[in-house]
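Hi, here's the filled form for the chain we discussed.

Project: internal
Contact: R.S.
Residues: 385
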Amino acid sequence: MVKVRPVESKKDLMKFIKFPWKVYRDYPAWVPPLISEEKKKFDPKENPFYDHAKVQLFLAERDGEVVGRISAHIDHNYNEFHDEKTGLWGFFETINDFEVAKALFDAVFEFHSREGMEQVLGPASFSTNDVTGMLLDAYDLPPVIMMPYNPPYYVELVEKYGFKKAKDLLAYLITVDDEFKRFADRLQKRLKPMAERALAHGYTIRNANLKKWKEEVEKILIIYNDAWEKNWGFVPWTREEFFHIANDLRQIVIPELGKIVEKDGEPVAFGLVIPDANVVIKKLNGRIVGPGLFAALPYLLNIKKISRTRLITLGIRKGFRKSGVDSLLYYEMLKAGLSLGYLKECEVSWLLEDNYLIIRATEFMRGKHYKTYRLFVKPIGVPVE
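And the returned structure, exactly as it came back:
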């Protein structure tokens, strides 16, 4: 018999954090999270998500042994922004047993029903600003930094419970080989005149300044919350949340791959490519000596020599689109990326499946769709078939 109970103690939390090692022992592509970082993620004093959310973690046990875990959480900012009553679930891990999965989801739905929610969406760990979606394919490939991974059987368990597709998120891979470099050389020649016109109209572009990080993050937050406002599933970052993740990422940011466009001192656009730190994290098997992952990474490996990267964000504020800013940003980021001769691959993720403009642009850049992630939704009150 499966028993599901809430996480109520530090001992419970460590069971919650360490359970994935049991699930993934036969999945070599999995990248173990760092236990120190996971503990901070679930600490309301450390993670500002808790400031506008209600969170409950659950453990599933059979004969005293942990066989599954899940979170039920409500992001009040998401519901206020979208005028919805949507409950979320995330951090879902289970053995391949529908009895366990059903018990976990039953607990999630009971929680959200008590809280007055009308539907349940996930996986989002914790929100669409965090690790989002369930992998549908490419299980032999490791995830890049801040992207999810799961066994193939999770999809079957979720669908058997009655969840339906809400939205697919796509990942594209750009391979920086000789063919791409020849294409990029031709593209740069086409983009250069348009980039120069943008500069002539008063736009400026520069590298992110790590020495003035606080000021930079303030500007990037303005761009982000404006540029992505109309996207499906968007939820505005709070200042505290944005600084929380930005301060972590600061240790692995390569300034040449973080570009800020301004006009008269006003932030206009931003693009950021980061090294795939999972290359290092995977080798650590959850443990690290020192203050945490991002502070220690430069000492574990020369972060600038990781050949796989991720284009994690690229956006232009609504009032500045179709002004040549896009060409300026693409031109300078492409030039910077190619100048770092060790780069071999760049994942562009994630893209909404119906964001056709961005998809076409990515495919034009020789990006190949190679991974798909899915968010699932189910109304409260619909029985399991």
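Let me know if anything looks off before we file it.
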